[in-house]
Amino acid sequence: xxxxxxxxxxxxxxxxxxxxxxxxxxxxxxxxxxxxxxxxxxxxxxxxxxxxxxxxxxxxxxxxxxxxxxxxxxxxxxxxxxxxxxxxxxxxxxxxxxxxxxxxxxxxxxxxxxxxxxxxxxxxxxxxxxxxxxxxxxxxxxxxxxxxxxxxxxxxxxxxxxxxxxxxxxxxxxxxxxxxxxxxxxxxxxxxxxxxxxxxxxxxxxxxxxxxxxxxxxxxxxxxxxxxxxxxxxxxxxxxxxxxxxxxxxxxxxxxxxxxxxxxxxxxxxxxxxxxxxxxxxxxxxxxxxxxxxxxxxxxxxxxxxxxxxxxxxxxxxxxxxxxxxxxxxxxxxxxxxxxxxxxxxxxxxxxxxxxxxxxxxxxxxxxxxxxxxxxxxxxxxxxxxxxxxxxxxxxxxxxxxxxxxxxxxxxxxxxxxxxxxxxxxxxxxxxxxxxxxxxxxxxxxxxxxxxxxxxxxxxxxxxxxxxxxxxxxxxxxxxxxxxxxxxxxxxxxxx
Length: 496
Fold this sequence. Notes:
The chain has helices at 3-6, 17-28, 46-49, 81-94, 182-191, 218-226, 228-243, 246-251, 256-270, 274-279, 297-301, 359-363, 396-417, 426-440, 444-447, 469-477; strands at residues 7-13, 34-38, 101-103, 107-113, 118-123, 126-135, 157-160, 174-178, 197-201, 208-209, 292-293, 306-309, 313-317, 320-323, 328-330, 333-336, 351-352, 381-383, 421-424, 484-487, 493-494. A hairpin with a 4-residue loop joins β14 and β15. It folds into two domains: 3-142 and 341-494, 3-Layer(bba) Sandwich (FAD/NAD(P)-binding domain), CATH 3.50.50; 151-212 and 237-336, FAD/NAD(P)-binding domain (3-Layer(bba) Sandwich). The chain is built from 16 helices and 21 strands.
């Protein structure tokens, strides 16, 4: 490859909602000098990586999509994985950004070169350089494996939900499913009817809410095609209803008791066995961990070939699994529904900023970034869906679009000032994160009494945004970039 093919003003790593959204925005601003590096063989991000049976978004389709690219043809109010994947691929084609995407390119490391003021990337396809580097690697793609003795020595089939092997036939097999998070609650009901025995290992019982999914009628689809404003109104209504949950999550956690009653009622309707009901009843406040909608989870646990193992997994042997009480069960396959690397994101171990400092070293176990986007000591580096941008109630696409607006302003500021470097001020980053931590106090995640993937190694909630999402969007869209320092190899100047 020539230097013109391996250097770009902006390199975006990842081609999911974040990467494609930014690519589309850059294209619409008239920029052609950018590349999107994607390790998979096509765009789609997490919706290409996760193909497990039953994979569906738990946010309504009308909200979980780009605001500028509504889809009137969703088949249901909550879209299945193939539809979301195909939607993203259509967006890549519709907005003509595929020519900027390099698929099959895995980024192995990225290092800031102070002397040339560029980012140098080492990838599976060779070296690239960029003036600006953007990490658009979503948090729900890199599988997290459990630390269980003997797992590596198991002689049967082992697969993570994020790396589903569709060529492996589960029919008639004895299967252990580890974990009861969002992925497991979707794939377990799908595989239960075909396996001989299914042992569901539960460490912590999840709160399950009734699922409002339904097919969208042909009338609705025609209406949205002919009258796009109608779909925008529905989107706004869905957003408003979801945003009301912030009252319980972040303002008055006692309000979550109302939703707990709904969840308990849902449980009582679907489970009559008192002992089973007791084992699936959570012992923490609803919302402290991810809330999961499902109408099929509880009925699946009552099937004669399904056993809920609430004592957790202690050990894996050559052809069996052993629970924490020492009971051994023979199995042919193990499916890991154990989540993803979220607070210990892979980028933290790949990106080196000024003086060769690794992102993980700068964070010291607790990821923090200004608007979840920029980190001091890492010039010309931005993140999409970085620390404290996650949601427990709404659409991440809303947050992504807010961050994209912020990045567009920042990249534009470099051009307007004739600068070569932009870097967030340390004091601005610290002030922002102090405010985040202050808002986190008194929330359901602070008082709810649970341990979750929201927490980093220090016990801090480095995942969620603890306030109204419209407030984040307002902060991100503010054209005042005084939180940043701009320079061009000369004494730094402040952008006002």
